[in-house]
């Protein structure tokens, strides 16, 4: 019997695998396999239809003439490889966008040859990243992008805006700022909410924005039924786009807030009693719809309303998308050129806005191009505050009470006293019935005011909580001189 025949099958598979692949684990304990010299990594336990490591290992063994092995030998070999990889150091994997060395950022083009875009402080180029610098994780949602065009002289941005129906120049520059933000792996960006009348091309414009980052296979999706389905979708891609929203439940609103600014879920691993796995995510989102009803204050701070108008001249879908696909390399090249300029621009960081990173990006965009995106962003937040107030009778009543206060004065009462005062102010002398959802206890009122605190502050009414001895109070203050943009809102 020859020496090869004496070697166990699992040993043959293990030796071949360690020779042709690199195995490592992520911080959550998932083991990945990466073919030598290639930046794409696959989890070794994946059974996905797009190609698991088990499948590529079987194909490699067959094509290299090693042999065809049964499932037991493969399982034993992969069990050993996984155990060995769990003793090694960790390395993160990324979907679509990743941080690199020396301040660079990588964009995965989704190509089979691994070519990606490296955006660095002095420009951008196309290269295959070193597997130890960047590991790409691909799913069924990872589409292929064309090679971006060089030396576009910025005409790609104009081509994109010509294909969309944004209502104003301010809306256009906010859309461009959001696209630049999507190329940053560590910068949370607000979720654009494309609104407008029927026939304004909201879904079409949303697809165009998404496909610049996700390729021509990127598309809009319906709103998920629950947070778990939304989390699964978000974790499998980079930009998540939800189409034709007409209602925003409190749970969906809270989930979107966490997705925009970042969160982590812990779930029980399948077929186990106590094992868990973590899903961390912070992703760009995009929404479309005519109206979603009442917007909660915390979500309003994370939205970017982009209004569209009906086009004067209609074009067929086939004609529109044929032109878009043709100019997509130019659009992507111009966006990369602009991203390099914006990141190199110096600008002060606005300290009065919740999404300070995006506000800073808008300021950099203005410094690099002369746009007015930061002012447009402030104006959009003011519009959203108006929407929140118009949909919240408690906020309207608080502002009505504050209007009767002297500038610079402060009123302190317990939550129960505030509930009595605001309820009486709303009911009036005619004792009109209280609306559904009106606070029924002082605790409920205090919680509602905490959610409304940023919205009310933007209208020059400050709410704070404190304690005097054993009694807690809520203080309402009307500052003597609101900032200029707040003064305009109050008047």
Features:
491 residues, alpha/beta, Rossmann fold, four-stranded mixed β-sheet, four-stranded antiparallel β-sheet, 17 helices, 43% helix, 16% strand
Task: Put the structure in a nutshell.
This protein has 491 residues and is an alpha/beta fold. It contains 17 helices and 17 strands.
Task: Give the overall shape.
Answer: globular
First-residue to last-residue Cα separation: 95 Å
CATH fold name of the largest domain: Rossmann fold
Overall average pLDDT: 87
Name given to the CATH homologous superfamily of the largest domain: P-loop containing nucleotide triphosphate hydrolases
Helix fraction bin: 40-55%
Number of helices: 17
For the CA atoms, what is the radius of gyration? 27 Å
- How many DSSP-defined strands? 17
CATH class of the largest domain: Alpha Beta
Strand-residue fraction? Answer: 15-25%
Order of adjacent strands in the largest pleated sheet: 1-2-3-8
As for the number of domains, it is 4
CATH architecture of the largest domain: 3-Layer(aba) Sandwich
Described by strand count, sense and barrel closure, the largest sheet is: 4 strands, mixed
SS-derived structural category: alpha/beta
Low-confidence stretches: 486-491
Polypeptide structure, described:
- This protein has 491 residues and is α/β, with parallel strands linked by helices.
- The protein folds into four domains: 3-85, no CATH class; 97-137, no CATH class; 155-388, P-loop containing nucleotide triphosphate hydrolases (Rossmann fold, 3-Layer(aba) Sandwich), CATH 3.40.50.300; 392-490.
- The protein has 17 helices and 17 strands.
- The chain has helices at residues 3-6, 9-20, 53-63, 71-85, 155-163, 169-182, 202-214, 227-235, 250-261, 297-300, 317-344, 356-369, 373-390, 393-403, 415-427, 442-458, 484-490, and strands at 21-25, 31-35, 40-43, 97-99, 105-108, 116-120, 123-127, 136-137, 191-195, 240-242, 263-268, 276-281, 285-288, 303-307, 410-413, 462-468, 471-477.
- A hairpin with a 5-residue loop joins strand 1 and strand 2.
- The protein starts with a helix and ends with a helix.
- Residues 486-491 have low confidence and may be disordered.
């Amino acid at each position: 019997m020859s020496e090869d025949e004496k070697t166990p099958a699992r040993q043959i598979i293990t030796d071949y695998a360690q020779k042709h692949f690199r195995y490592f684990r992520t911080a959550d304990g998932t083991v990945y396999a990466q073919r030598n010299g290639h930046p794409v990594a696959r989890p070794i336990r994946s059974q996905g239809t797009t190609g698991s490591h088990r499948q590529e290992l079987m194909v490699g063994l067959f094509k290299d003439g090693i042999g065809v092995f049964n499932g037991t030998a493969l399982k034993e070999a992969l069990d050993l490889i996984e155990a060995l990889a769990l003793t090694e150091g960790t390395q993160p994997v990324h979907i679509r966008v990743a941080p690199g060395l020396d301040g660079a950022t990588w964009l995965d083009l989704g190509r089979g040859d691994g070519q990606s875009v490296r955006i660095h402080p002095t420009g951008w180029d196309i290269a295959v990243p070193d597997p130890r610098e960047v590991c790409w994780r691909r799913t069924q949602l990872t589409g292929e992008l064309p090679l971006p065009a060089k030396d576009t002289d910025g005409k790609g941005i104009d081509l994109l805006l010509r294909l969309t129906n944004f209502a104003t120049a301010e809306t256009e520059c906010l859309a461009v700022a959001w696209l630049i933000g999507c190329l940053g792996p560590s910068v949370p960006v607000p979720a654009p909410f494309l609104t407008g009348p029927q026939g304004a091309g909201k879904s079409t414009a949303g697809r165009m924005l998404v496909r610049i980052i996700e390729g021509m296979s990127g598309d809009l999706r319906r709103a998920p039924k629950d947070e778990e389905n939304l989390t699964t979708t978000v974790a499998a891609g980079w930009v998540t786009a939800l189409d034709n929203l007409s209602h925003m439940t409190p749970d969906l609103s809270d989930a979107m807030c966490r997705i925009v600014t970042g969160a982590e879920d812990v779930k029980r691993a399948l077929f186990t009693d106590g094992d868990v796995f973590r899903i961390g995510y912070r992703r760009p989102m995009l929404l479309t719809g005519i109206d979603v009803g009442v917007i909660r204050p915390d979500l309003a701070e994370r939205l970017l309303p982009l209004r569209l108008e009906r086009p004067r001249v209609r074009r067929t879908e086939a004609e529109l998308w044929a032109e878009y696909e043709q100019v997509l390399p130019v659009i992507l090249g111009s966006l990369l050129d602009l991203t390099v300029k914006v990141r190199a621009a110096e600008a002060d960081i606005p300290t009065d806005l919740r999404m300070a990173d995006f506000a800073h990006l808008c300021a950099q965009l203005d410094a690099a191009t002369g746009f007015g995106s930061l002012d447009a962003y402030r104006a959009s937040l003011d519009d959203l505050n108006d929407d929140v107030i118009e949909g919240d009778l408690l906020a309207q009543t608080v502002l009505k009470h504050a209007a009767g206060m002297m500038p610079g004065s402060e009123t302190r009462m317990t939550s129960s006293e505030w509930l009595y005062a605001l309820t009486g102010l709303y009911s009036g002398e005619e004792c009109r019935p209280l609306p559904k959802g009106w606070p029924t206890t002082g605790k409920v009122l205090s919680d509602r005011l905490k959610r409304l605190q940023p919205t009310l502050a933007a209208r020059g009414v400050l709410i704070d909580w404190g304690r005097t001895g054993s009694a807690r109070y809520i203080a309402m203050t009307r500052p003597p001189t609101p900032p200029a943009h707040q003064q305009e809102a109050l008047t």
